[in-house]
Amino acid sequence: MEGSVSDILSGDGQNVYLKYFVFDAEGKRTKGGKCHLFSIAGLLGEEWFVRSYWIIGEGMPGAGWGGWANAAKQFPFGRILCFNDQAIYGYGRQQVAGGPVGHRMDAYHLFAMDRKVLPAPKPQPKPAPAPKAGAKKRRKPRRQMAPKKGKMIWSDTASLTVRAMAAGGQRLVLAGPVDLGKKKPGLLAFENEPDALAGFQGQRGIFLRIVSATDGKKVCELPLKSLPVFDGLSLAGGRIYLSLKNGTVACFGK
In whole angstroms, what separates CA 157 from the centre of its chain? Predict the structure, then answer.
């Protein structure tokens, strides 16, 4: 269903986007557009909701119970994303599936993905089964969209829980608490729930970490006094600026 709420605008140098709505340089609604950064649930929300994620995509993907995972199957996705001309960096689930199965698939990773889209696989036609006498006519299957994703460059499953992130040069800067959660596959629960919750809330350590954009290896890290504001990190003039939930702004330089 078409509609939107107030959100952060994004642009590609030619068009301006409000979620999946496209506007030209004069502010007029237009069609078309390119793959761009947006979130179906909105970029302003920092709630760690199970069906909420960012994508670099296009079109008007849905977010209902049966379709909330479809956009993640087609486009690069994550809880939080940043990118340059060569790569997309993100932190989020390793894979997403709809329905109750998708709620259990919540293993996270920090990753880098090539921005060059892989060629779509050629569809393999399947022979239609012979209709049985008296059987109802089946509906035609929905046309499946070809995924618009690049090749995975690296993946780190031992990352911090990333609440803020930015890419600059050959480095990726991220901030957040340590991830202490331990899970068994197929169960939507932590084996160590008290420790997992304490880590998520920042009670067991919060860090600013710099990793290599080439391979994801840690370069250095510093402890923080407070959780970062979600998506509250920026890079400018060789310095790192980070908004913290205690009401302060931290600046880091050489």
Answer: 15
In 3D space, the residue among 113, 114, 215 whose CA is nearest the CA of residue 171 turns out to be: 215
The answer to whether position 115 is within a domain reads: yes
pLDDT tens string 146-184: 788 999 999 999 999 999 999 998 999 999 999 999 887
Range of the domain at 245: 160-254
pTM of the model: 0.86
Cα gap 162→176, rounded to integer Å: 5
* Shared-domain flag, residues 180 and 153: no
Question: Average pLDDT, stretch 106-118?
Answer: 90
| Lookup: tokens for 148 | 């618009």
Is the alpha carbon torsion for 71, 72, 74, 75 positive or negative? positive
Residues counted in the chain: 254
